Amino acid sequence: MQLRLVRTVTFRAWHRLSDSRATDADNRARFGATADAHPHDYRCEVAVTGPVDERLPMVMDLATLDRLLTEQVVEPWHGKYLHRDDPAFRDTLPTCEGIAREVFRRLAPRLPTGVQLAAVTIAEDDRLRAECRP
User: Fold this and answer.
1) Interval 25-45 mean pLDDT
2) If you ran DSSP here, which 8-state letter would residue 87 be given?
3) pLDDT score, position 111
4) Does residue 4 register a pLDDT over 90?
5) Which residues have a Cβ under 8 Å from the Cβ of 32 and sit 6 or more positions away?
6) What pLDDT is attached to residue 3?
7) pTM above 0.90, yes or no
C-alpha cells in the first residue's frame, strides 16, 4: 500500500516578470504591471509517497520533511527578491511554474530512501497555481 503525505508552507517573496534582453518599455508591453517588482504570499504544497508499514503508517518523518522545507524553501526565499537573491532565478523567470520546478529540483534528491516526491504545487494567490510532477 502507498500513502501520500502532503505538507504546506508559506513564504512572502518579491518577483517581477521581465526579459533581461528586452527594454523596460517592451517588458511593460508584454507583462503589464507584473513587469514591476511586486510581492506574493506564496503557498508551497509538497506531496510525498512511499511504502508504508501497517504498524507505523508514516510515509516519512514529518520533522524531516519540515526541516527540508524550511532549509530549501522558506529560509532562502521568505522576504527575498527572487531575481536578486537566488541564482536559480537570475536567468529564469520566477513564475509559479519556475518556482515549482525549482522546489522539485531542491527537494527530490534530499528525501529519505524509498520516499518519492509526487508533486510540488506553488500558488501565488487563490486564482493561480502551478504543479510540478516527476
Assistant:
1) 94
2) G
3) 97
4) yes
5) none
6) 87
7) yes
Q: For the chain, give the number of residues.
A: 134
Closest CA to 59 of 118, 115, 134, 1: 115
DSSP summary character for residue 70: I
Measured distance CA(95)–CA(129) in Å, rounded: 10
Q: What grid cell was written down for 19? A: 526579459
**Cα dist. 17→20, 28, 36, 77 in Å?**
10, 9, 7, 17
Whether residue 99 has pLDDT greater than 90: yes
Question: Is residue 109 exposed (0-12), middle (13-18) or buried (19+ Cβ within 10 Å)?
Answer: exposed
Site of grid cell 511586486: 38
- Sign of the C-alpha dihedral, residues 98, 79, 10, 104? positive
Residue 133: burial class (beta carbons within 10 Å; 0-12, 13-18, 19+): exposed
